[in-house]
């Protein structure tokens, strides 16, 4: 059964020739969900349906279309790294949070324990092939990390960490809201979103230090949108050969949504520590 919510999302400009569009490969039921800036209406449906995001974002004249990744798809979409390397913790480590350094580029990341899981407390910012900064502007990477196509995301996490599966995302959602009963029947985002950094601040508790931020998204044809309004993160679970599941948090709503989208699109990555490393 579908239910419709009115959205208060405002887009920064109108790109008359071609709106920023996510066109997804659907599941067998053939349903779809569309968030359209023209109708300002968000239709939320069941967890397995396809998702289209249509946003009127002005294309930057200097924007360069991101490269489509040549990284081969993994034969298993949910296989974590076999590494047992334990990240180094900060001096303020109390067993529930700390920092570690990615040896590939010496970037340091915060991590936080949420229930039985250990998550990065910020988005990945490793310059893998198939990833870009929002609007191809480096300063956005400093705030939100990079945006990755799904094939790049599958192998982008550092040793000892992995791209979380759809089931592992669900563990997080249900820990944040033990009363969650479905993809949209939860208030988990209220507890997972950063207390500041969203265009509608003041509602978010950041109860566990997960500190989700609205890094927006990118299209494989070079357009970007939704920075400040949406945060979208890949899962390692593909829905078919051409699309994969992801989680989304909205500026004005308290739930974490679940959709599938074309795996060439560009979304954020949150890495999860391998069980062998805990």
Calculate Rg over CA atoms: 18 Å
Overall pLDDT, averaged?
A: 75
Poorly predicted runs of 5 or more residues? 1-92
Helical region count?
4
Which percent range fits the helix content? 10-25%
Helix and strand sequence:
EEEEEEEEEHEHEHHEEEEEE
**Tertiary shape:** globular
Strand order of the largest sheet: 1-4-3-5-2
Which class of secondary structure composition applies to the elements?
mainly beta
Proportion in β-strands? 25-35%
| Main beta sheet | 5 strands, mixed
Q: Give the total of beta strands.
A: 17
For the record, give the distance between the C-alpha atoms at the N and C termini, rounded to a whole number. 40 Å
Structural commentary:
The protein is mainly beta. The protein has a domain at 97-277. It has four helices and 17 strands. It has helices at 138-144, 150-154, 166-176, 188-192; strands at 3-6, 20-21, 32-36, 41-44, 50-55, 97-102, 107-114, 117-120, 131-132, 147-148, 161-162, 217-218, 224-225, 230-238, 243-250, 256-262, 272-273. The longest helix is centred in the middle third of the chain and has 11 residues, at 166-176. It is globular, with a radius of gyration of 18 Å.
Topology summary:
Elements: E1 3-6, E2 20-21, E3 32-36, E4 41-44, E5 50-55, E6 97-102, E7 107-114, E8 117-120, E9 131-132, H1 138-144, E10 147-148, H2 150-154, E11 161-162, H3 166-176, H4 188-192, E12 217-218, E13 224-225, E14 230-238, E15 243-250, E16 256-262, E17 272-273
Parallel strand pairs: 3-5
Antiparallel strand pairs: 1-4, 2-5, 3-4, 6-7, 7-8, 9-10, 11-17, 12-13, 14-15, 15-16
């Amino acid at each position: 059964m579908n239910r419709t919510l009115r959205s208060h999302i405002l887009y920064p400009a109108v790109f008359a020739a071609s709106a920023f569009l996510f066109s997804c490969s659907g599941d067998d039921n053939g349903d779809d969900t569309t968030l359209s800036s023209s109708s300002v209406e968000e239709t939320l449906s069941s967890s397995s349906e396809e998702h289209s995001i249509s946003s009127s974002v002005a294309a930057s004249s200097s924007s360069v279309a991101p490269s489509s990744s040549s990284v081969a798809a993994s034969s298993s979409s949910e296989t974590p790294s076999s590494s047992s390397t334990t990240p180094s913790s900060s001096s303020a480590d109390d067993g529930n949070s700390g920092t570690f350094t990615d040896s590939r580029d010496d970037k340091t990341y915060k991590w936080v324990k949420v229930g039985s899981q250990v998550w990065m407390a910020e988005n990945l910012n490793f310059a893998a092939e198939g990833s870009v900064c929002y609007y191809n502007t480096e300063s956005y990477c400093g705030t939100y990390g990079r945006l990755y196509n799904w094939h790049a995301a599958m192998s982008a996490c550092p040793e000892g960490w992995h791209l979380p599966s759809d089931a592992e995302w669900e563990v997080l959602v249900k820990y944040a809201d033990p009363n969650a009963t479905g993809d949209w029947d939860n208030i988990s985002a209220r507890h997972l979103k950063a207390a500041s950094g969203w265009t509608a601040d003041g509602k978010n508790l950041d109860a566990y230090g997960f500190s989700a931020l609205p890094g927006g998204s990118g299209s494989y044809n070079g357009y970007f949108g939704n920075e400040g309004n949406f945060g979208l993160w890949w899962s390692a679970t593909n829905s078919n050969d051409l699309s994969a599941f992801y989680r989304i948090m909205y500026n004005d709503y308290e739930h974490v949504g679940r959709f599938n989208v074309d795996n060439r699109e560009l979304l954020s990555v949150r890495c999860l520590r391998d069980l062998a490393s805990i």
